[in-house]
Amino acid sequence: MNPAARRIRTAAVALALLGAFPALSGCGIRGTAVPVDAGGAPSRASCVVPADRSAPGGLATVTIQLTCTSQLVPVTRQVSLPDKPGDTVVVARALLDELRESPSNEEAAAGLTSSVPQRLTVAGPRPGDPGGTLRLGREPEELPQVALAQVICTYAGTAAADGKDTVVLGGPGEERPRAYGCTDAMRGHPDTAEIKGTRIP
Questions:
Q1: Which of 34, 68, 137, 148 is deepest in the core (most CB within 10 A)?
Q2: pLDDT mean over 88-92
Q3: What is the dihedral of CA 86, 107, 136, 70, to 10 degrees?
Q4: What is the band of 34 on the pLDDT scale with cuts at 50, 70, 90?
Q5: Which residues fall within 8 angstroms of residue 198, CB to CB, at 6 or more apart?
Q6: pLDDT digits (tens, 9 = 90+) for 109-125
Q7: 170 Cβ contact partners less than 8 Å away, ≥ 6 residues apart
Q8: At 131, is the secondary structure helix, strand, or coil?
Q9: Is a pLDDT exceeding 80 seen at residue 52?
Q10: What is the DSSP string of 136-164?
Q11: What is the pLDDT of residues 4-17, one digit of tens each?
Q12: What confidence category does residue 50 fall into, taking pLDDT thresholds of 50, 70 and 90?
């Protein structure tokens, strides 16, 4: 190849390389030598399970609080209340049974989970306890925070709390029970919300 042809070919290659740079920059992504943390991938969890309120005979529709994407989500279930449907302890046990249950396939597919220990129990008040007290099998403050938020927000406002916005919870020890209310912070951020019960004289 003669010198003139070599110079023409070199110039053509250089122009082609220069023309590639606008195409690379036009994609809107800048190269960087520093790793970039863009956060986790968006969650695909819907957190929604269609409510089935057509309870068969003998079953009652109740609402429990499960967790999804770090927040509490109300979920309806069909339960049997064979004894006294208005009895505080009967309702509390039925609701706790549902919290301890593994989510159904449909609930799991929607991203719903429960942090309530499967061996957690609940009983009625001891002599000297305030009326409506529920004694858990573990001290409330010893439960995982999310689990405690689930229990409080599931019980509050139901027959388990005698229809009140707060529920009185104690543990198996001699500590006096405390009244707990379900707050917006507990519903939105159960893992970090401040959960403090009010001491009852």
A1: 148
A2: 93
A3: -120
A4: very low
A5: 166, 178, 179, 180
A6: 999 999 999 999 999 99
A7: 126, 129, 133, 134, 135, 136, 140, 176, 177, 178
A8: coil
A9: no
A10: ESS-GGGS-HHHHHHHHHHHTTSGGGTT-
A11: 444 444 444 444 43
A12: confident
For strand 166-170 and strand 134-136, is the pairing parallel, antiparallel, or unpaired? parallel
Per residue in 156-188, pLDDT (tens digit) is 999 999 999 999 999 999 999 999 999 999 999
Nearest to 159 by CA among 83, 45, 46, 100: 83
Contacts of 81 (CB under 8 A, 6+ apart): 60, 90, 91, 94
Phi, psi angles (nearest 5°) of residue 56: -65, 165
8 Å CB contact between 81 and 69: no
The token duo for 53 is 């309120």
Output the six-digit token pair for 65.
């609080």
The answer to whether 195 touches 187, Cβ cutoff 8 Å, is no
Strand, coil or helix: what is 16? helix
Angstrom distance (rounded) from CA 121 to CA 151: 11
147: tokens are 């689990």
From residue 69, alpha-carbon distances to 103, 127, 144, 187, 191 in Å are 15, 41, 17, 12, 11
Residues with Cβ within 8 Å of residue 140, at least 6 apart in sequence: 148, 151, 169, 170, 171, 178, 180, 197
DSSP assignment of 17-61: HHHHHHHHHTTS----SS-----SPPP-----------PPTTEEE
